[in-house]
Hints:
The protein has a domain at 22-151: Neuraminidase (6 Propeller). It is 4% helix and 45% strand. The chain has helices at 3-11, 347-350; strands at 15-18, 23-27, 37-45, 51-58, 67-73, 84-87, 93-101, 107-114, 122-129, 140-143, 148-150, 155-156, 162-168, 182-189, 194-197, 207-214, 220-226, 237-243, 254-259, 266-269, 275-280, 289-294, 303-308, 315-321, 327-333, 338-344. The chain starts with a helix and ends in a 5-residue tail after the last helix. The model is unreliable at 1-18 (pLDDT under 50).
Amino acid sequence: MKRSAVLIALFLLPILWAAGDDVSIEQITRPDFPGAYRHPASITQLDNGDLLVAYYGGSGEYGTDTAVYGTRLKAGQKRWSDPVVLADTPDRAEGNPVVWQAPDGIVWLFYVNRYGDTWSTSRIKAKISKDDAKTWSDSFMFAFELGSMARSQPIVLNNGDYLLPVYYETGHDTEMTGRDSCSYFFRYNPKEKTWKETNRIHSPTGNIQAQVAQITDKHLICYLRRGGNYEPTTTGYLLRAESFDGGWTWTDAKDTEFPNPNSAVDFIKLKNGHLLLVYNDNMNDRTPLRVAISTDNAETFPYQRNICTGNNSFAYPYAIQTRDGKIHIVYTTNQRVDIMHAVFDEEAILKYPVK
């Protein structure tokens, strides 16, 4: 077989790494398509059991040729589908897709549409699907305010409302967000079919990309990416804010003990009530990728494990728990070229208590 044919054959096979026998990691994107850039991925399990991943790709982060792509792993199969375009605005850049299936079966696709040179000129657009993401509605503008962005998955509140984390990014420097960048939520009443905004979460150097979990009917917690630049620091921490009225109003964000290299994190509630936090355990580099679990409503995180380590970037983790109890995390690596998919049981983290 010719060398070129061998390479093509290898690209068509799942590429697997092991972070230990109890954590499996595979590459789900091909290195040759689409374009040289593939970044923030989101994942959802559909009602039919399929896994759907959405990301944006093209020539680069700020390329106007970028589009939102989707790839699917059908239930019971091992090979992800070739990527297909889910959203593409001519001559404008797409970014940060969030794909999520609501309890009524509607699949939502939220994504960013950039109008200028930096993300502070963005608005949020959306599409919906009523057939497990096989076909989609036309796109529609979801948030009109310039600087509006999405990145985080919605949750269903105990009263049935949906809570979608969004943020407002300011500044016209690609290497820094403005100090007034802040996070907030859109809250959806499925009976009235209306979205309403919460108050905005502020912090001294700004914040973006909140990840939220509901503790009780009234108490919610979110962890947020810090604002600022990417210069070396010894004071770069993950932030935390809380709501005590069911998610309508939020406290200002405060530093936590977790380092944050100005990079996205994820925070989800597992089926047993435990809380899972996945983040880069570093103030300056997006490595390692660490998973921490709390069994006491985020008072402490006594179980922690690195699932990716080394001289690389493991960025923008996005976590879900599927109906079989497995935890799935998608993230990007190799300078935003490859999207990876990690799968493990909670026990793979619980066996690593912090000493």
